[in-house]
Amino acid sequence: MNETISYRNIWRISYPLILGFVAVTIINVTDTAFLGRVSDVAIGASGLGGIYVLVMLMAAFGLGIGAQIIMARFHGEEKPERIGPVFDHMMYLLLTLSGVMILFHFLFAEQLLSRMIASDAILQSTIIYTNIRVIGLIPAAIVVGYRCFLTGISNTYAISYAAGMMAALNLVFNYLFVFGNLGFPRMEIAGAGYASVLSETLSLIYLIVWVRRKRLGVQFNCFHFPKPNFKQIKSIMRIATPVMVQHVVSISAWMTFFLIIEGMGERDLAISNIVRSGYSVLMIPLIGIGQGTQTLVSKLIGQGGTHLVFKLIKRLLLVSVVSSIGLMLLNLINPRLLLSVFTNDVMLIDDSIPVVYVISISIILFAVSMILLSVVSGTGNTFMTLVIEVSTLVIYLNFTYRMVHQWHQPLHIVWTSEIVYFSCMGLFSGLYLWSGKWKNAKVHE
Predict the structure, then answer these.
(1) In 3D, which of 55, 113, 51 has the Cα closest to residue 277?
(2) For residue range 262-296, what is the model confidence (pLDDT) as tens digits?
(3) Are 343 and 46 in contact (CB under 8 A)?
(4) Which residue in 94, 85, 70 sits closest to 230, CA to CA?
């Protein structure tokens, strides 16, 4: 148990996850970096379209996290033979979910997006982009399944390799497709969509081959894909459903935030999307540590180490906060450096800097709140995680809406809503953990 909570183990689990989250972020960041050299409309459309697709992907990610918590608990209890059935049924659920989401998109997306996006130019570009990106939900969902399996068994190295492959391929495909280099047709925003789908698919192939070669399926009783066992499905969904709803609600709120900003004009939306891309880069290490936290906490409880959870929390907070301070200082010393990756428009960069200062403060708060919320999730009480998230988002969106439509504040003041968001999340999570009620949570029968 002492090994589980050691700084060495925290880093061993977290750093491949940090690199893994680079992949998902790099796709949107690379799209923004290339499309930032096309037009403000392309930036805005890729930003909204990327969040729209991310909302769907977060449903799959939430399902995977629920299964990951169960697999980590079995791993801590030294019951590897029970991990495989969880993995197999997780894959059934992920494939079904991704198919339903693709069907939903092609039936309702245009009507839904037209009600939310005021600019016709941004709307049309967003539809072009999302029609391509949603096809990649199937390989992306399966990648989520493999990532959560590897994280649950504390074998995260392949995640970083797959991430590096995805990031590199996405960069190459964007270079070829967006501007039409090396004989390829110039496709602009459509090219960014194709680049994302291809890079996700090739990354999945790598993960499948790696897991097979390491014979992890034999070790953990995976890949039998028996007739669906509804008791097993119910067990997964009991833990996963609140996490799925939490992730979808969280990203939906993020999209709502940008839709509120879109009402301020195309320029403010472009600035916000440039800043969001930089913000996403800064959050990568903290999100990776957060996902590792869920596995570490669940495994520790499975080993009978409930009394060591607060010691683990202190160590996780130290790692996370120190990382965030480094990122904040790097951002404050030269804010133009990160922004220049996403656009070569000097005026757009200058207009974005006041917002950068605001998010630099929120990064510290994010480092604390992400760890505390992840600990709540790792205990198995995922319903409480959902309650905390929803309560926080109600305050967050109400504050943002009033900032824009009632108090008519400038963009950088509107972005202080991030500070409100993370402060509330950290406070609510900390109060719940301090109450000790999480000790009674059950992950499986």
Answers:
(1) 51
(2) 889 878 988 988 888 778 777 878 888 888 899 89
(3) no
(4) 85
